[in-house]
Design goal:
- With about 130 residues, the chain is mainly beta.
- Helices cover about 5% and strands about 45% of the residues.
- Strands 1, 2, 4, 5, 6 and 7 form a 6-stranded antiparallel beta sheet that branches.
């Protein structure tokens, strides 16, 4: 394996596969041949909300808003986000995104992925559900 890799995230196939209309997810970890670093791109169409969130058992993540604006759910708190905001999230915090009227483009960065992964899906609704 060479000591570097160059990958264009737009060349990676969408792995979300229509599970949520209006959301695309492109996961770069395997394309980078990295065991220490994961970089992914999530593109949300205008006003699309990820209805479920997730947390992790071990992995801390950071998200960079590279386009658009919207909101992020962090457990029971909802915060507005805009281009160039960076959000660091501890493993145990449930996180999910909602795009604003112009959509939302997010780069996710994670550390070493434990064997078998460590993502924990959450069924808890957004704190403002029903409002």
């Amino acid at each position: 394996m060479p000591g570097y890799a160059i990958v264009n995230l737009t060349d990676i196939d969408d792995s979300v596969g229509g599970r949520l209309p209006g959301l695309e997810g492109r996961f770069g970890r395997k394309h980078l041949d990295s065991t220490e670093l994961g970089v992914s791109r999530f593109t949300y169409a205008p006003s699309v909300r990820n209805p479920t969130g997730h947390s992790h058992r071990e992995q801390e993540e950071a998200y960079v808003i590279v386009g658009g604006s919207g909101r992020v759910r962090l457990d029971d708190e909802i915060r507005d986000v805009r281009q160039w905001d960076v959000i660091r999230v501890s493993p145990e915090i449930v996180r999910a995104f909602e795009a604003g009227p112009d959509g939302l483009d997010v780069i996710a960065v994670g550390g070493q992925k434990p064997e078998g992964g460590d993502g924990v899906p959450s069924d808890a609704p957004w704190p403002d559900a029903g409002h």
